[in-house]
Structure formats: structure tokens, C-alpha cells
Amino acid sequence: MNSNPEQPIGIFDSGIGGLTVANAIHHFMPEERLIYFGDTAHLPYGDKSADAIRYYCLRISKFLLEQNCKMIVIACNSASSAAYDMLLDFFEGKALFVNVVDPLVNAVIKKDYRNVGVIATKATISSSIYRNKIKTLNQKVKVNQLATPLLAPMIEEGFYSGNISKSVIENYLSHPDLDNIDSLLLACTHYPLIKNEINEYYKGKVDILDSTDVVKDEVYRILSEENLLAKKRQGEDSFYVSDFTTSFEQTAKNFYGEELKLEAMHIW
Ligand code: DGL
Predict the structure, then answer these.
(1) Which of 36, 189, 195 to mutate to test the pocket of ligand 1 (most atoms within 8 A of CB)?
(2) What class has domain 102-211?
């Protein structure tokens, strides 16, 4: 790999949920230039087959490599579950890849939780990636998985603090499969937006973990190990979407926490 520190970091998601991860990276490493790609034309990934998700991820990664990215962060759990291994094989030696699953799994193991809940899209839950990876590292941890497919579209539509979201969240979290958990993994990059409401539901009795902090730490760790941390910012960040609507742009602001300009990029 012949990368240099001033190349950008590519980040992608099915839509705008991955902006929660992009924002964490941006604040922690402000010298890094980011190129974000949201595949809004194919959203949601959570209801797609693993083959369809792999196909989308291949094309997006190719695009990000054409933009000269030194690293690609798969800021989507559904895509990380279905496509990470394949992307590593396919683009071996061309860029560093980071998924959002391993950093959360490592956080669970470090904290020694015993009864872990996982909420995510149907694609992530049916892959059982969290259960398999956690069990491989520690057989004793009980992993309780629940698909929560209404949450990502609900958040994309702007419902994440109010009666509608409260009632959907309570409905899912009161499922018997999540009884007696000591920690809950928000295994979808959309869910940091409802973290406060989830915390309110559990009243501090359950630790809630999301990908934002652990993934930005992992990105920092890898770039620093590879001597690829940027010293000086080279140009502005870019935020591309495969299908542009003004409503995506408005919601994107809430995910990123500040104004940003989305640009349509037709790569299909
Ligand atoms: N952000 C995606 C994830 O982390 C979920 C949204 C979708 O279904 O496309 O899985």
C-alpha cells in the first residue's frame, strides 16, 4: 500500500446514519479530510439480501478508492456484516478498511459484560455477526439479539424525540428477549440519535454503547500505527449521496450536528 497521510478518509453508509461516525472522526481528527458517500438510492440496506449489499459496497468502495482514499470506514452495520470480509479480499493492498462491528465487540469484551442486548436491522441480526464474534472471544457472555427494523426509517424521517419514537422504542425494548440485560449495543449507525430516549427508558440501569466513539478510536489507532495521520488538512470535506432530495439534506444536518452540503453523485 503506497498511501500518504494527506490522502482523505472515505466513509460510507446506506444513507445518512453514517454521518454520526463521520462527525465523531471529524471532531477527533480535524486535520483529516473526509469523503462521505451515502447510498440513498438503495436505502435501507437493512432489508436487503447480503448479495445485494455486497454489490453496492463494492461499487462504493471502488468510487472512494478513485477519490484516492487511504482508508475506507464502513459506517454501516448491515454493510459491515455482509461485506467487510469480501472488501478486504477484493481490495487487498489498496486501502485500509475499518468496520463498525469489531470495535463494539471489543468494547463488550473489555468491559466484561455478561448479558448483552443487540438491536439492529434485520440484515445485521440475521447475520448473527455480534453473537458469533462475542462468543468466539468469550463463551460465557449471553448475547440477546433483536431486529428493530422500524427504527432506522423512523429516524431518517426525523422522528427521534417525541411520542411516536418513544412508543416505538418502548415497544421494542420491552421485548422479553431483552429482559435482564446489563448492556445494550446500538448496532446501527442511525441509533445514536435515539440514545437519550433509550437511556431514559432504562433509567441508567443498562449501559448503552454505540459505534461513534469506539470507531473513531479505532480509526485513530490504525492511522497512527501506519504513520498515516494527516498533519495538515488538504481541502474541504465532501458529502455525496447517490440520490439527492432536500429532505435528505435537512435530516443530514441532524445526524452530522452541523450544516453540510450534500452533493448528488451518480455512480450506478
Ligand atoms: N445505518 C445502517 C446500519 O448501521 C442501517 C440503515 C439501513 O437499513 O440502511 O446498519
Answers:
(1) 189
(2) alpha beta
